[in-house]
Design goal:
- The chain is an all-alpha fold.
- Helices cover 74% and strands 0% of the residues.
- It has helices spanning 2-22, 29-42, 50-74, 84-101, 103-118, 132-150, 159-182, 191-195, 197-216, 221-242, 248-274, 278-290, 306-312.
- It contains 13 helices and no strands.
- The radius of gyration is 20 Å and the shape is globular.
Length: 314
């Protein structure tokens, strides 16, 4: 009896652990690591520095914190609500690592953490909701400066680097907005649910236009970021043209999945042009592709089936 009880508890523990790992959206691990490593390479620390490993670790830890804290606020149907210990463990570990580095890193971590805690309110607060995509972009912007402080290289900031960071942060704004289009039938307060698909579509177009203008002024920016952006924009517009009216959630679903690939590619390419080794770029690309199947493991979200996608085509 005791053995059965222990086995049952162990099985439940493993099941919950896998659940929380999958709801931390592994399909985005590569993009978060790529942002951190890109910053490290820009600062000239070199791929052989232990800072590269530490930056990858804190990037993933803060991604865990964002997702698990969001789950505790949003309480989506079908998902377990994480315990406070699970929610705060990634932040506490990152805090300790930052304190070991320098005091400035702790300050920027607190700012980054505060923005993360503001983000999930978009699902519950009608005033915050329209600014959700912008807040998501701010989480990336503050992540970059936290990492620079973490490795002690805030003085390395240049005009070109600011433009790249703004472009990547705005790409996350666009990605988040397209994700809200995907969830248009389930959300209550977000831009697509409140103001409609047309407003959301034009907002995405404006964001992409601004990004295109920013990368135009960055050396090699048109290749490293502009090319993935162009692919994403053209593909998204094709979805708008070929998917029939009334299936905006399918446009959002396909557009969001595509955006994950192009955005991660932009981060990897930007890192490559800052000096990231080809080997690391290949590893990040493989990680991005291998973890894409985890996308549909999001209890509480309703994704269109292949048959529904086929029927939506004009």
């Amino acid at each position: 009896m005791y053995n059965l009880l222990v086995h049952g508890r162990s099985k439940k523990f493993v099941s919950r652990l896998l659940h929380f790992l999958f709801t931390s959206k592994p399909y985005s691990y590569a993009s978060n690591i790529a942002v951190g490593v890109m910053v490290c390479e820009f600062a000239g620390r070199g791929i052989h520095s232990s800072n590269i490993v530490n930056v990858a670790i804190v990037s993933i830890l803060m991604w865990f914190f964002l997702n698990w804290y969001s789950d505790s606020i949003q309480k989506d149907s079908g998902r377990f609500v994480p315990s406070k210990l699970l929610i705060w463990s990634p932040f506490i570990v990152t805090f300790v690592m930052s304190a070991h580095q320098n005091v400035v890193a702790v300050l920027f971590l607190l700012i980054h953490g505060a923005i993360i805690m503001l983000y999930p309110l978009k699902a519950t607060h009608h005033i915050v909701a329209p600014f959700g995509p912008l807040i998501r972009g701010m989480t990336i912007f503050t992540q970059v400066f936290f990492i620079l402080a973490f490795i002690g290289e805030l003085s390395s900031i240049t005009y070109d680097f600011i433009l790249v960071v703004l472009a990547i942060s705005l790409l996350h704004v666009g990605r988040n907005l397209i994700g809200d289009i995907r969830d248009i039938l389930q959300d209550r307060y977000e831009i697509p649910a409140r103001f409609g698909f047309a407003v959301s579509l034009w907002t995405v177009r404006i964001v992409m236009t601004v990004v295109s203008c920013l990368v135009f002024f960055v050396p090699k920016g048109m290749i490293s970021i502009g090319l993935p952006v162009a692919i994403q924009w053209i593909s998204f517009e094709m979805l708008v043209v070929f998917i029939s009216k009334g299936n905006e959630n399918i446009i959002g679903y396909l557009g969001h999945r595509l955006f994950i690939l192009t955005l991660t590619s932009a981060c990897i390419l930007a890192g490559f042009f800052f000096g990231l080794s080809g080997k690391i770029c290949i590893i990040l690309t493989a990680l991005m592709l291998l973890l894409q199947p985890t996308y549909t493991y999001l209890p509480g979200k309703q994704f269109p089936t292949l048959q529904e996608i086929k029927l939506s085509l004009k």
